Amino acid sequence: MKALSAPLSSGAIALTVLAVAIFVLSSCKTGPINLFKAASPHEQYERKLVNSGLHKSAMGLSWINEGRERLEKAVPIKLPYLEKGYFAAEEVGAAAFSFRLTKGQELQAKLSRVPADGFMIYMDLWELQDNGTLKLLAAADTLGLALKTSISRTATYVLRLQPELLIAGSYTLELAYGPSLAYPLKTSGRNQIQSFFGDGRDANSRKHEGIDVFAPLRTPVLAIAAGTITRVNENNLGGRVVWMRPDGQDYTLYYAHLDEQIAREGERVNVGDTIGLIGNTGNAKNTAPHLHFGIYTSGGAVDPLPFIAPVSIKFREVAVSLGVLHTSMRTSAAAVLSDYAPMSGAAALKQGTVVHINAATGNNYRVNLPDGSMGYLKASQLVPVTRPMERYTVREPETPVFSRPTTIAAVKQTLKAGEVVSILGTFGAYRLISDANKQTGWIK
């Protein structure tokens, strides 16, 4: 059974289809539409809707509102994250996910679509500010296939997906994080890093302002970004050191305890260029050879580990049926609508609660409740609504059947006393029914 989320009427869809067709044709020409170059693809599309008057249509207004509401109601997830989903042409859909990222990491978002042509999904990344507002940070280009962004602030981030109007298709989303800079040695391994930022030094009289990467004496030390060597000198703590400023960044890289400095002050380097050889100069003369690596900003030292730490990305593959995407199901027993990271309780659901299946991830489905709430349910907790829970005989002389589980929704039909219907599921005080003609709706 298809989703029961009250799609627009056929008349409204027909009018919008015609308007969208005119809109698409006109948007391919040079005309009065005023698009700023700095606008994201999503913003450009919204401006086209407004400039063409489509924002006054039910579907156009719904598209604008849905995109904004999803940002406010993003579901929390834990990276790495993989989901497979479906957007229907007759409905206005969007999805948004929130997650924590650390300064120095790089977000890696990959989106694949079927069909690849003619099915546009806008993907953009937002940063949650201290005042609770969201700031647009980055957006995928019009190909909409990938997005990589270096993270300059430890915070909560929101990634939003929203397709264009009246276009259907499926997608696969992969979200992961990794280091924003390369590794300073030719071969990388977390076990090489044996001393960390903030560790006590000299009987805890000072804090370690970097990390120590251990390797054999005179192992080549590499530039981890393209940039300029700003200083090559010696000091009591670091011994032979090299300072480097990456292009376009507001921080400086610090390489210390080198046995030999190869790069020269003012030299331009690229990723992988050798700038020195590992040693134990300075105050490391009584330790095994290693690289002390630090990162300094105008506010002082920051933890360099997220900038370079190797990350093994292992996605949890989808292990449930995709055949139920864009359908309605119900809970087979009392269940908990959960956040994904971790699967913690968000809302208790009664047996028989109707949900709309949006996407699949691991052993779970991402679902919507009829009131718009979103979360995750285990596939094992759901059964199709096509299997009636029970038969019900209407008792009242006239019982209105609503398009949604609320009395302010449109009335689809009126049932007479004595009519027998199938109860497919429930939501609050409402029951989803199917009549003798297989017409569905909600009764109270």
Q: TL;DR?
A:
The protein is mostly beta strands.
Explain what this protein looks like in three dimensions:
- Helices cover 11% and strands 43% of the residues.
- With 444 residues, it is mainly beta.
- The longest helix is centred in the first third of the chain and has 18 residues, at 10-27.
- Strands 10, 13, 14, 15, 16, 17, 18, 19, 20 and 21 form a ten-stranded antiparallel β-sheet that branches.
- A hairpin with a 2-residue loop joins strand 20 and strand 21.
- The protein contains four helices and 34 strands.
- It has four domains: 10-179, Jelly Rolls; 190-308, Glucose Permease (Domain IIA) (Distorted Sandwich); 328-384, SH3 Domains (SH3 type barrels, Roll), CATH 2.30.30; 390-443, SH3 Domains (SH3 type barrels, Roll), CATH 2.30.30.40.
Overall pLDDT score = 90
- The CATH C-level class name of the largest domain: Mainly Beta
- First-last Cα distance: 21 Å
| Number of self-contained structural domains | 4
Percentage of helical residues? Answer: 10-25%
Largest sheet: 10 strands, antiparallel
Secondary structure topology:
Layout: H1 10-27, H2 41-51, H3 58-72, E1 75-76, E2 81-87, E3 95-101, E4 105-114, E5 121-128, E6 134-139, E7 146-150, E8 155-163, E9 169-179, E10 193-195, E11 200-201, E12 206-207, E13 211-214, E14 220-222, E15 227-235, E16 239-246, E17 252-261, E18 268-269, E19 274-278, E20 290-297, E21 300-302, H4 305-308, E22 328-331, E23 335-338, E24 345-349, E25 354-361, E26 364-368, E27 374-378, E28 382-384, E29 390-393, E30 398-402, E31 411-416, E32 420-427, E33 430-434, E34 440-443
Parallel strand pairs: 1-3
Antiparallel strand pairs: 2-9, 2-25, 3-8, 4-7, 4-9, 5-6, 5-8, 10-13, 11-12, 13-20, 14-19, 15-16, 15-18, 16-17, 17-19, 17-20, 20-21, 22-25, 22-28, 23-24, 25-26, 26-27, 29-32, 30-31, 32-33, 33-34
